[in-house]
């Protein structure tokens, strides 16, 4: 003979309905604690926090304290949980596990913020050093030839003098190769030729040169030669 299953009671149906819709539960001030002991263990941390915050006029810690201890142990480990229990016994104090959980989460959050700040600071310092190296490299690039003579610094006057000399040489070569320079050279050459062979403006004397005259001139020249020898 097969055993017939008993139909669930109305209370069991209500508890199961509450468990299935626990994400919608808020204020449970009117619910008995023995019912909450069956419903609240199915809550997540956020759901349990919301229910306790919504139930303002009632302390749910007799039911939720063990639930928060379980969350603490799951989040931070068994050893950390046992250390907290041992310190509370030594100091003869008792704290609710929700407060311990929230305090521990706050400490971890602050530590993470400090680590994030250090990472950000190191990144900014590294970025500043990288940009500083880029600036130094750009400053070491030599200026172009067209600007070098006009830039400040050592050797600027020498560079300007060299550039001026090169420009003068280039201008001189361009002038010597020009058509105008060749015309001037031809004119100077002709002028020098005329100075070397000047034209006599006075006509030569028509008086013949007789031998007597030359003889007399030679006679007069001889004593002068003797005197020079003496």
Verbal overview:
There is one protein chain. With 230 residues, the chain is mainly alpha-helical. The protein has a domain at 10-96. The protein contains 10 helices and no strands. The chain has helices at residues 10-20, 33-39, 45-54, 61-76, 78-91, 97-139, 145-148, 156-176, 179-196, 211-229. Helix 4 (61-76) crosses helix 5 and helix 4 runs parallel beside helix 6 (97-139). The longest helix is centred in the middle third of the chain and has 43 residues, at 97-139. The protein is rod-shaped and about 150 Å long. The N and C termini lie far apart (186 Å). Residues 148-154 and 199-230 have low confidence and may be disordered.
Backbone structural class:
mainly alpha
The helix-strand sequence is HHHHHHHHHH
* β-strand number: 0
How does the major sheet shape up?
Answer: none
The amount of beta strand, in percent, is under 5%
The radius of gyration computed from the alpha-carbon positions, rounded to a whole number of angstroms, is 60 Å
The pLDDT mean sits at 76
Q: Helix segment count?
A: 10
């Amino acid at each position: 003979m097969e055993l017939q299953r008993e139909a669930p009671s109305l209370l069991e149906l209500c508890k199961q309905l509450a468990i299935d819709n626990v994400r919608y539960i808020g204020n449970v001030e009117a619910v008995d604690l023995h019912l909450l002991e069956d419903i609240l263990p199915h809550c997540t941390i956020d759901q349990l926090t919301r229910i306790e915050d919504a139930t303002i006029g009632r302390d749910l810690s007799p039911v939720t304290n063990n639930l928060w201890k379980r969350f603490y142990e799951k989040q931070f480990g068994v050893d950390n949980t046992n250390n907290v229990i041992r310190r509370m016994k030594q100091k003869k104090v008792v704290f609710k596990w929700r407060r311990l959980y929230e305090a521990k989460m706050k400490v971890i959050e602050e530590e993470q913020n400090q680590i994030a700040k250090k990472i950000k600071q190191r990144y900014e310092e590294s970025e500043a050093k990288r940009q500083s190296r880029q600036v130094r490299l750009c400053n070491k690039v030599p200026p172009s030839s067209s600007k070098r003579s006009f830039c400040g610094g050592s050797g600027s006057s020498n560079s300007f003098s060299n550039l001026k000399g090169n420009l003068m040489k280039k201008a001189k070569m361009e002038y010597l190769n020009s058509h105008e320079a060749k015309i001037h050279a031809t004119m100077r050459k002709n002028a020098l030729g005329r100075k070397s062979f000047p034209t006599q403006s006075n006509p030569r004397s028509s008086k013949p040169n007789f031998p007597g005259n030359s003889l007399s001139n030679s006679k007069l020249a001889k004593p002068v030669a003797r005197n020079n020898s003496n």
